[in-house]
Design a protein that fits this description.
By secondary structure, the chain is α+β, with helices and mostly antiparallel strands. It has two domains: 287 residues, Rossmann fold; 100 residues, no CATH class. Helices cover 28% and strands 21% of the residues. The protein is built from 13 helices and 18 strands. The strands form five sheets. A ten-stranded mixed sheet has the order 3-2-1-4-7-9-8-11-12-10, sandwiched between helices. The longest helix is centred in the last third of the chain and has 14 residues. About 3% of the residues have low confidence.
Length: 428
C-alpha cells in the first residue's frame, strides 16, 4: 500500500469528503487540491469555510469549467472525490460527430469525466441523490447508464450502492447513491478479473448472476455496509451497454437497482436491503438541552406555528396548469413535530425556514427549530464546523445561520465516507 494517496476534492462544499477520509486515516488520505464554486453568487461562503479549515492546500475558487486540461494534468491525484449535482445528462451528436450536451444542465458531471481523462486517477468516490438511478422519469435509468458508459469508455469499472445512513448507525435517514470507481489496470481490478472474469463457463442464461458473490460479499460496499443475502423480490438485471454513448442516451431501456457493478461495458444490478443489525442514533441523542439553545430558535409566533401545522398536514388542492388544465394536488400528512426517538429526516437546503421539510422539535412543550450545531451533528461534522469563514482578505468572520443550514442541507454524512475510506485501505 502506498504511504499516501493524493486526493482531489471536487464540488467540495465545506469539506465533507475530506472530513470523512481524514477520520479514516489522515496519514493515508492527503487532500492536495479542492475546488468549490457557487455560481451566480458574489459571496463564496462554502469555499471560505473550507479555506478557514484547510488554508495550506491548493483550494481553487473558480468555475470548474474554467480549470484547463493542463491544470488537471498537473495534478497527480490518486483519488478524485465529490458530490456532484443531479442534472440532465443527455448527450447528442453534432455535425462534426463530436459528443455534446443537450441543454445547459449536464455540464458538471462531464467535468468529472474531463478531470478523470486528464488526471487518470486510480480511484474515484462519488455521491449523488438516489433518484439519479431513476432519472429521467420518461426513460428511467438512462442518466445513470450514460455515466457508466462514460467511465467504461475511459477504462474504469464502477460499483454503486444506495445507502441510507440511518441503516448503518447514523442519526439521519439520508439516502444517497455512492460510487466506487476504479481503473481497470489497478491491482484491485486485476484481482476481481481473476475471480469473476477469467475462464468463466457462464452462458447467456446465467450471465446475470456472474457478480452475485461480489455484490453480496466481496465488494467494497458489501463489506462495510452489509446487506441481506438475496435480492428483494428477485429483482436483478444484467445489461450490456452500447459502445456509443449517444446510443445509450437515445435508446437505453434497462433496469437499474440500488446495488450494482459495471465492468467492461456490462453491468449487474440487484435490489437489496440492509442487514438491519445497526441501530440508528435517535434525535434525542444529538439535540442540545433547551437551556443551551438561544431564544431565536424557539417558535413563539402563533402564525408560524399555524403555518407549520398547515404545511405538515394533509392537503387536497385544485390547481391549474399554465395551459389551463385543472388537476388535484394531494399530499399526505406527517407528524405535527419530529419524533425524538427516531433518527432525523433528510435535511434539505431549506432547513431552518418555515418549510414542510424543516425539522420541528417539541421539547417540554416548547417548539423550536434545529440549531446549526445540531444540523452539523446530523451530518457527523464537529460542532461549529461552519461557524467561521476566511475571507480573501484573510479576515475571519462568522457565517450566518441561514448559510450554515444551507451548507448542511448540501452536505453528506461524513461517517459514511469514513467507512468507505476504511475499506479502501484494505483493497488498495
Amino acid at each position: 500500500m502506498s504511504k499516501q494517496l493524493k486526493v482531489l476534492e471536487l464540488f467540495a462544499g465545506v469539506g465533507g469528503f475530506r472530513v470523512g477520509l481524514e477520520k479514516s486515516n489522515p496519514d493515508l488520505y492527503i487532500t492536495k487540491w479542492s475546488n468549490q464554486w457557487e455560481p451566480s453568487r458574489k459571496s463564496q461562503d462554502a469555499f471560505e469555510v473550507y479555506n478557514f479549515h484547510y488554508p495550506n492546500r491548493l483550494n481553487i475558487n473558480k468555475n470548474i469549467e474554467t480549470i484547463t486540461n493542463e491544470e488537471f494534468e498537473s495534478m497527480d491525484a490518486d483519488i478524485i472525490v465529490g458530490g456532484f449535482p443531479c442534472q440532465d445528462y443527455s448527450v447528442a451528436r453534432s455535425k462534426k460527430h463530436e459528443m455534446g450536451i443537450e441543454g445547459k444542465k449536464g455540464v458538471l458531471f462531464w467535468e468529472i469525466i474531463r478531470a478523470t481523462k486528464h488526471i487518470r486517477p486510480q480511484y474515484l468516490i462519488l455521491e449523488n441523490v438516489d433518484r439519479l438511478l431513476k432519472s429521467p422519469s420518461k426513460q428511467r435509468g438512462r442518466d445513470f447508464a450514460i455515466m457508466l458508459a462514460s467511465f467504461n469508455e475511459l477504462g474504469y469499472s464502477v460499483e454503486w450502492r444506495v445507502i441510507n445512513a440511518a441503516d448503518y448507525g447514523r442519526s439521519q435517514r439520508r439516502r444517497r447513491v455512492f460510487f466506487f470507481v476504479y481503473r481497470n489496470d489497478t491491482n484491485f481490478a486485476k484481482k476481481i478479473d481473476e475471480k469473476f472474469e477469467g475462464t468463466s463457463t457462464l452462458d447467456i442464461f446465467t450471465e446475470e448472476r456472474r457478480y452475485d458473490n461480489y455484490l453480496f460479499k466481496d465488494g467494497l460496499f458489501a463489506k462495510q455496509f452489509p446487506i441481506l443475502q438475496q435480492p428483494v423480490k428477485n429483482r436483478e438485471a444484467f445489461y450490456e451497454l452500447p459502445e456509443d454513448i449517444v446510443e445509450v442516451s437515445d435508446n437505453f431501456s434497462g433496469k437499474v437497482w440500488n446495488t450494482g457493478i459495471m465492468r467492461y461495458g456490462r453491468y449487474y444490478t440487484i435490489d437489496t436491503e440492509p442487514k438491519g443489525d445497526e441501530k440508528p442514533i435517535p434525535l434525542k441523542e444529538i439535540i442540545q438541552p433547551n437551556n443551551e439553545v438561544p431564544e431565536k430558535y424557539f417558535l413563539k409566533d402563533t402564525d408560524k406555528l399555524k403555518k407549520f401545522q398547515y404545511l405538515r398536514g394533509p392537503k387536497r388542492i385544485e390547481r391549474t396548469t399554465s395551459e389551463g388544465h385543472t388537476y388535484i394536488f394531494s399530499e399526505g400528512g406527517m407528524s405535527p413535530y419530529d419524533d425524538l426517538d427516531l433518527p432525523g429526516r433528510t435535511m434539505l437546503t431549506s432547513e431552518g425556514s418555515v418549510n414542510r421539510s424543516t425539522h420541528l422539535l417539541n421539547i417540554d412543550g416548547k417548539y423550536r427549530l434545529l440549531t446549526p450545531i445540531e444540523a452539523e451533528k446530523l451530518q457527523d461534522f464537529q460542532p461549529d464546523w461552519t461557524k467561521y469563514k476566511k475571507l480573501s482578505t484573510g479576515e475571519i468572520v462568522e457565517v450566518s445561520d441561514r448559510m450554515r443550514m444551507f451548507f448542511m442541507g448540501n452536505a453528506l454524512v461524513t461517517e459514511i465516507v469514513k467507512r468507505i475510506g476504511d475499506e479502501l485501505q484494505n483493497i488498495i
